[in-house]
Automatic annotation (TrEMBL):
Involved pathway(s): Carbohydrate acid metabolism; 2-dehydro-3-deoxy-D-gluconate degradation; D-glyceraldehyde 3-phosphate and pyruvate from 2-dehydro-3-deoxy-D-gluconate: step 2/2
Organism the protein comes from: Halioxenophilus aromaticivorans
Signal peptide positions (record): none
KW Lyase (keyword) present: yes
Record protein name field: 2-dehydro-3-deoxy-phosphogluconate aldolase
PANTHER family: 2-DEHYDRO-3-DEOXY-6-PHOSPHOGALACTONATE ALDOLASE-RELATED, 2-KETO-3-DEOXY-6-PHOSPHOGLUCONATE ALDOLASE
Keyword Lyase in annotation: yes
Length: 206
């Protein structure tokens, strides 16, 4: 495994966070870290996303802060400029892959097919987000990809839960799993931070 793969394997779970507000993103992160989580992928899905990312970085918690929903090269450059720990995209494009090549910011690009995987490999990528994992039958795809792509590792994301995470993590070509199940909108809206800590701890215990 390369260094990025090793760090993802240590993290095991990459929570996918929607930053509804700066304050709720701070509280979510604190709650997950209290539950043993070591990373957050904060998605660029709301107007306050960059402010929320900066606020979480400034907390100084033992948590890797990644930027999600990197859908183009410009957003990758912005994530690089704020010294994010990692970047995640839902899919790939040649412009994004070219921009990430040689960068110190690791990109975890989303793929769902062998052709997309090979496109990423052309740019030196060996770790992919398998997305949307459960909608595309991740267990079957992971078995199928292991034959022609033995050196490639995956972070299945999309539809992952406490129940199916163990089966995915047990696979030799899976380094970690991603998902939002520990920070559902209803938990965040109700401010149930202790429940977020509890679900996070359960996830880390897998
Ligand atoms: C993502 O953007 O990675 C997904 O929305 C996460 O999927 P989930 O909400 O099903 O966990």
């Amino acid at each position: 495994m390369n260094e990025f793969q090793k760090s993802l394997a240590e993290l095991k779970i990459v929570p996918v966070v929607t930053p509804y507000t700066v304050q709720s993103t701070i509280e979510m992160t604190k709650a997950m870290v209290a539950g043993g989580i070591g990373s957050v992928e904060i998605t660029l899905r709301t107007d306050c996303a960059w402010d929320a990312i900066k606020a979480v970085q400034d907390l100084g918690l033992p948590v890797k802060v990644g930027v999600g929903t990197i859908t183009n090269a410009n957003l990758f450059a912005q994530a690089e400029a704020i010294q994010a720990d990692f970047a995640v995209s839902p899919g790939i494009s040649n412009k994004l892959l070219a921009r990430s090549e040689g960068s110190l910011l690791p990109l975890l690009p989303g793929i769902a097919t062998a052709s997309e995987l090979m496109q990423g490999m052309d740019y030196g990528i060996s770790t992919f987000k398998l997305f949307p994992a459960m909608a595309i039958n991740a267990p079957a795809l992971l078995s199928s990809f292991a034959g022609p792509f033995p050196e490639i590792k995956f972070c299945p994301t999309g539809g992952v839960t406490t129940e199916n995470a163990a089966g995915l993590l047990a696979r030799p070509n899976v380094v970690c799993v991603g998902g939002s199940w520990m920070v559902s909108k209803s938990l965040v809206e109700s401010g149930d931070w202790s429940e977020i800590s509890r679900i996070s701890a359960a996830a880390m215990a897998i």
